[in-house]
Amino acid sequence: MAGLATTFGSGAMTNPISDITNEVELMFLIGTNPTEAHPIIGYKMRQAARRGAKLVVCDPRHIDLVDEADYWLRVKPGHDIPLLNGLMHIIIKEGLEDKKFIEERTENYEELKAIVENYTPERVAEMTGIAVDDLYAVARLYATTDKAMIFYTLGITEHICGTRNVMSCANLAMLTGHLGRPGTGVCPQRGQNNVQGACDMGALPNVYSGYQAVTVDDVREKHEKAWRVALPNKVGLKIPEMFKGAHEGKVKAMYILGENPVLTDPDANHIRAALEHLDFLVVQELFLTETAQYADVILPAASFAECDGTFTNTERRVQRVRKAIEPIPGQANWQTICQMVTRMGYPMEYGSPREIWDEMASLSPSMAGISFNRIDQHNSLQWPCPTLEHPGTPVLHVGKFTRGLGSFQPSEHIPPGEMPDEEYPFLLSTGRILQHYNVTTPYSKGISSIWDKEMSELNPLDAEKLGVKTGDQVKVTSRRGEAVTQIKVTDRVLPGVIWMSFHYSATPTNALTSDSLDPITGTGEYKVAAVKLEKV
Description:
By secondary structure, the protein is an alpha/beta fold. It contains 21 helices and 21 strands. A six-stranded mixed barrel has the order 16-20-17-19-18-21. Strands 3-2-1-5-6 form a five-stranded parallel sheet, sandwiched between helices. A three-stranded parallel sheet has the order 9-10-11, with no helix packed on it.
């Protein structure tokens, strides 16, 4: 995206996690709840704040790190672009932008300046609910701090304007020169332990491994030669397009490995209907999940503890993983895939994860220097790492961007796809809780004993109007579905908002979530949907 395409297109942190501990002077958090969704990073942020680093939290909800924060910008859900534009407006008006960085390393600045000109502090305060004085204070603090890092995650990306939100974060960092140095940067935190690695390996519809576009002839021909097979030159389907295709009868079969879209994807009833339309569904899983119940064939999966290979974490660090026990199904997941592909007519004859990795690295310029032998010896390396002599790259964009000049990509405010109205007067937002760390865990008696049911958060003013108290049940209904949940009455959420996690099959939150999608990435708008509440 813009000048930072390689980084933000893949969702990788520009800077290492160690910068939080050792370098950062200001942490700017927007749309992220790290103490619950990324607890190791969240703990390091607490440490940094307690050693004197400043902390700004932009979140509609009172997350735990608000208690450590110097400033809490309680932005209205779906209004991140006006907030970021408003901060940039102040920085430019007060002459706090990094003029040297802008002149030498960026382009399209005049367009950014023209758009943010209209986002005055007074207008932004009205749009976002944030006090004018706080907007000035945070803009000045971010612009004048030498080492400032932006952190974001799904609270930025899970919107109809998620891509534009990410670009706005990049705009703010470039405007102030907070890129390409230790203790600076834009740092998205990946959702699960190997989401970064899956994307790096090419588990996306538009790229091969190392983010090499499938539409580039030289790239495609290189892979055709290595794999001895003809390859298409067209971009494939995103997940929402796959399920839409299933509804329309264009997608006939699916193979789902390690995902549970019935519980985790937005508009879950739409997902269920799509699976029912398929001619054939294969699910490779550890458990009989809600999705596996629709399968024609279920293949046994091996867990992380039964697999050799690599995980790549959110800071682009490729880490060697060694199995603790032999695979209970009798073989690792890659072996199952190889056997299936061979039976479909293409002999896939890898002998080990080492062979798979080394072939991938040889075809991927950004990872060509990360051989299996090197990570066996060093345990981990960060890409880009183009040669076997290269030490890896902790900080991206030192000296120049991937595309040369970083391009400002300004955006006007884009309203959510659905907002509360007279029929559905409450705003639903969703997220994760620490006790079920990033996953749905009905299969773990230990975890379920700690937090065994959904406790959705509702503001005391709304609870009083509905005549409910903590522990009562409410039925939550959207235009797409309904769910019954117990509630916790708390001022952690704004009036007019109900906050729910999605960890429990007994409370299928994603039966409620919006069917609006980011038009560029296809990401669902989990963070904003219109619902109504009724006391059960």
